[in-house]
């Protein structure tokens, strides 16, 4: 099947399918006319990659997971290590997002939100304010 058909069956844009080929994640055969010829197995690999990417795995992680998927002598501990590292990265990102939310909530609370031009939110972004944890809250 051609790239368009493989893209439709995998639910990926054709551009993504070509990119995965370009970086070596999939290797479709070439027909006599030089066009890519995707097999059902290639579509299965594309679906695998799509699912892994939806779970947030990086391209490098996907490359490792794909290699492990193809290796029937793999140790499941290798797969688990990649997944565990990914969960740790997600947890760190959640902590960063929670910290960002807390900072923004403090800034929003400190902002009068009226017709006055002074704005602690903009001052913080410009680097002109003190640490929000030590800065007194503006009243009124």
3D structure, described in words:
GO terms for molecular function: copper ion binding; DNA binding; DNA-binding transcription factor activity. It is found in: Cytoplasm. One of its GO terms (cellular component) is cytoplasm. A two-stranded antiparallel sheet has the order 1-2. The protein has 140 residues and is mostly helical. Strand 1 and strand 2 form a beta hairpin. Helix content is 61%, strand content 3%. The chain starts with a helix and ends in a 15-residue tail after the last helix. The radius of gyration is 24 Å and the shape is elongated. The chain has a domain of 56 residues: Multidrug-efflux Transporter Regulator, Chain: A, Domain 2. The mean pLDDT is 90.
Q: What is the CATH third-level topology name of the domain at 1-56?
A: Multidrug-efflux Transporter Regulator, Chain: A, Domain 2
| Spatial strand sequence of the major β-sheet | 1-2
Instruction: Report the biggest beta sheet as strand number plus sense, adding barrel if it closes.
Output: 2 strands, antiparallel
Radius of gyration, in Å, reads: 24 Å
Oligomer state of the chains in this structure: single chain
Unreliable residue stretches? none
CATH class bucket of the domain at 1-56: Mainly Alpha
Helix content: 55-70%
Subcellular location: Cytoplasm
Domain HTH merR-type: 1-68
InterPro entries: CueR (IPR011789), DNA-bd_dom_put_sf (IPR009061), MerR-type_HTH_dom (IPR000551), MerR_fam (IPR047057), Tscrpt_reg_MerR_DNA-bd (IPR015358)
Pfam family, one: MerR
Compose a concise summary of this entry:
This protein has six helices and two strands, in the order H-H-E-E-H-H-H-H. By secondary structure, the protein is mainly α.
């Amino acid at each position: 099947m051609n790239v368009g058909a493989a893209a439709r069956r995998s639910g990926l844009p054709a551009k993504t399918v070509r990119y995965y080929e370009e970086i070596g994640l999939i290797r479709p055969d070439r027909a006599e006319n030089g066009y890519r010829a995707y097999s059902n197995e290639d579509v299965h690999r594309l679906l695998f990659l799509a699912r892994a990417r939806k779970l947030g795995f990086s391209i490098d992680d996907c490359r490792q997971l794909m290699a492990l998927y193809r290796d029937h002598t793999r140790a499941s501990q290798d797969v688990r290590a990649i997944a565990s590292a990914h969960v740790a990265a997600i947890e760190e990102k959640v902590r960063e997002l929670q910290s960002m939310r807390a900072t923004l909530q403090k800034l929003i609370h400190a902002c009068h939100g009226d017709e006055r031009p002074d704005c602690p939110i903009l001052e913080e972004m410009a680097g002109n304010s003190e640490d929000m944890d030590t800065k007194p809250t503006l009243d009124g």
